[in-house]
Amino acid sequence: MRMKKLAAGVALGLGASVLSFSALAAETIKVGVLHSLSGTMAISETTLKDTMLMLIDEQNKKGGLLGKQLEAVVVDPASNWPLFAEKARELIEKDKVSAVFGCWTSVSRKSVLPVFEELDSLLFYPVQYEGEESSKNVFYTGAAPNQQAIPAVDYLKNELGVERWVLAGTDYVYPRTTNKILEAYLKSMGVAEEDILINYTPFGHSDWQSIVSDIKKFGSEGKKTAVVSTINGDANVPFYKELGAQGVTADDIPVVAFSVGEEELAGIDTAPLVGHLAAWNYFMSVDSEQNDEFIESWHKFIKNEDRVTNDPMEAHYIGFNMWVEAVKKAGTTDPDAVQDALIGIAVPNLTGGYATMMPNHHISKPVLIGEIQDDGQFAVVSSTPGTVVGDAWSNYLEGSKDIISDWRAPLSCGNYNVKTGKCSGQNF
Amino acid sequence: MTIRTFGGFCLLCLLFLLVPLRASAAGDEAVYNEAAKLLTSRSFDEKEQAIRLLADNNHPQTKQLMTLLMESRLYFNKKDDGLYQIDDYETDKPAISLLNNEPVAIEKKRDFKKITLNNQLRSLVRQIQAEIGLKSPDLSRRLAAVREMLGSMDEDALALIRKAYAKEDSATVREVMQIAIAIGELPAADEARARDAVATLAGSLEPDARNALTQFAGSTDNAALKAAAEKALAEIEQRARFYGGVETLYFGLSLGSVLVLAGIGLAITFGVMGVINMAHGELIMLGAYTTYVIQQLMPNHIGLSLIVAIPCAFLVSALVGIAIERGVIRFLYGRPLETLLATFGISLVLQQAVRTIFSPLNRSVATPEWMSGLIEINPVLSLTTSRLYIIAFCLLVFFALLLVLKRTSLGLQVRAVSQNRAMARAMGVRSEWVDALTFGLGSGVAGVAGVALSQLTNVGPNLGQSYIIDSFMVVVFGGVGNLWGTLVAGLSLGVANKVLEPWAGAVLAKILVLVFIILFIQKRPRGLFPQRGRAAEG
Known about the structure:
The complex is a heterodimer.
Chain A: H1 2-25, E1 28-34, H2 42-61, E2 69-75, H3 81-94, E3 99-102, H4 106-119, E4 123-125, E5 138-140, H5 149-159, E6 164-170, H6 173-188, E7 196-201, H7 209-219, E8 225-230, H8 236-245, E9 255-257, H9 262-265, E10 277-280, H10 289-302, H11 311-330, H12 335-342, E11 346-348, E12 354-356, E13 364-365, E14 368-372, E15 378-383, E16 388-389, E17 403-406, E18 413-417, E19 422-423
Chain B: H1 2-39, H2 44-56, H3 62-70, E1 74-77, E2 83-85, E3 94-97, E4 103-105, E5 112-114, H4 119-133, H5 139-150, H6 155-167, H7 171-185, H8 191-202, H9 207-219, H10 223-272, H11 280-297, H12 302-327, H13 336-358, E6 374-378, E7 381-384, H14 385-407, H15 409-419, H16 421-426, H17 431-453, H18 465-478, H19 483-504, H20 506-523, H21 534-537
Antiparallel strand pairs in B: 1-2, 1-5, 2-3, 3-4, 6-7
């Protein structure tokens, strides 16, 4: 009897809270944040969740959007790829968010892709990736290979005179595709087969002794050698430690990394790394007004002066501002209208220029090469003169050479083969 | 009159004497000013000009400036554009002006900006330092200088080394200098000289000597010389292969010692007690985090903090281990599946707890000075010091543990309980108490392993996960309940992994080792060194 009463009370309370929630929902625009807060990827993704909260908070201070306040809906997919799809569905169907900002690994993006296409919502993806994809519902604010890997190789070849190449990566889709593109690109520039050494290691590889020793031998054969590293996440620390331990310095064999940024360096003793390189579209050390402002508000928001900023954070900054502008332009948060409005939107980036959303749902970005300094920051040693437009389909790969992506009418296709004149059946 | 003339003459002489002196001092000053101006530029090209200007003019401060640049202690003041040496870039710390050696206190950090180098400049500076280093009274400095120059032997360098060779009296340095001279002479030498040079290079393992020979063999028209060079190359190749084998063995032993360290705690909890403890990796992680905390507490004594961390990590992990045993595992003895699930849950709880307390980001644990660096046996074989320490540490922990189990009353009771619980209880051993202590001992050893691992890999919430499978592999392979088995298994798996790796790649090597262990366990389910006797059957 008593139990029943209690249950009824609970049910009533729940009903009331649901009611009050839906009442609130009418006055706010919801924005989904889909980043892992636990599990392996929490190391990188937690920061992006905080960045989104900060951006939404600031927009609300400026008066919100379309006269309404923005409300962040944060979920935790726990570094579990199938859970990403479930949580994405929950965000779109249950919470009715207008757009989602999230994902880090390519696997997680591939896992949520069908959900976004089925429910026709918007995803802003902030991390550099391997390309070979262009979905109607995804906007890629991170770098495509031609906005990071190719300019980095050009820098090594032209400025440092590198002739031998070690392509070292973790064994999964991003390094494999990127290395395939790089290998094709290097060969197209006349690098011989025996001057390229490709090496894959498992996730979280921690014993780098023989690989570093191999690299050392490969590099001691007379020609200037460099390592292009797509080694991901945690495996980087023991890799650099081993380089330092075996006395490989950056002026003998420089390592250019695509996954090592300020945040990753914060967990390493950087002394043996000085001079190694990274290619990104943003560095915390870049001197610009927007950047100073961004860093200042980040420190204020996170209440810690020691926290760093990094490239994916800038990507969210750009993506969020683009979405805000597009919603203003469209006058609604309806995904279809916003998708159309987004193309051609230009917003300031943090390095002192503008980023424009292209018809292939990638953005234009400057490419910067930085050398690691002993304080864990990067000194920019080279940058492209203008911005580089992201290329969804690589020009160096057989099979994707002839494919273009253009989401404007009348083509409206992410996978159009210019030779056969056909848009492939898949949506991405 | 004469005196006057004489006086005038003297004055003239003095003037003449003074003019060149003054001119050179003024020249130095001009060079310094020009270089200082170029150094404060943002462009690396201008910095390069500055460095070349100093070196070409043999400016007396070149050496000092190069050292400061390399150690990134050279700053400039944005206001007066002067160069300063700053050892500690903090407000109120001194900045020493290079113009007059006078210290000023840093009022605002932003006033001073560091002069940064890029890789090209760094190698230029290193070359200049090498040239200066040739004249250094310090033997190791001279040796390093010559070896630095091996890779870039041109006319100038050859002349420089020949000059230094005449004055050199250390045999070791002379030997490397001979190689340098041979490399420098080889491309343009006549036949007799070339033959000597090839003979000199044949005895060297320096990669630069090898490259010079390869290049020479490819470009010379003289068939006899070509054959000689190729023969020398083949000899070098063979010796290098031998040392490569030694290196692989060393890598294998050091990987093996990491495996043993990670697994040895498990050898006690799983091997002796039979508890499948999935939280073993997290106990290692706790040890690594303890190291981090201790290092934060004593930031000025990095080496000492590591030593203090060893007992602390043991205590922390042991206490957590005892808490796990008393709180969870003791209710689950004899139910391996439930134990497995429960401890897996504990491992997730511990991971998330660390994420909440320390943030999900990796923590940086510094390596003390005496642990970094290389011991160079010869140019193709060098042993990393940190790995040597880890191997030694592993053996130390192993024998200490062996001693505890074989020679102490706790060890006696542990063995008694694990061999026959009922009989031990009948003899008056408090088996519950022994269980808790044994589990604590195994966990504590895991914590100690964490201290060692903090020097090699990430200190982050995922540290434990990457070692748990390896740990079980080692214990099962070695034979459950046998410490010696764990040691032999760990070291041999390490060596096997490293032998396979260059040949099959890191991913495949790991798979092959796993497949091998599965097959091995099929054949000998009790591992390398099975326990015999009644205990094994019970």
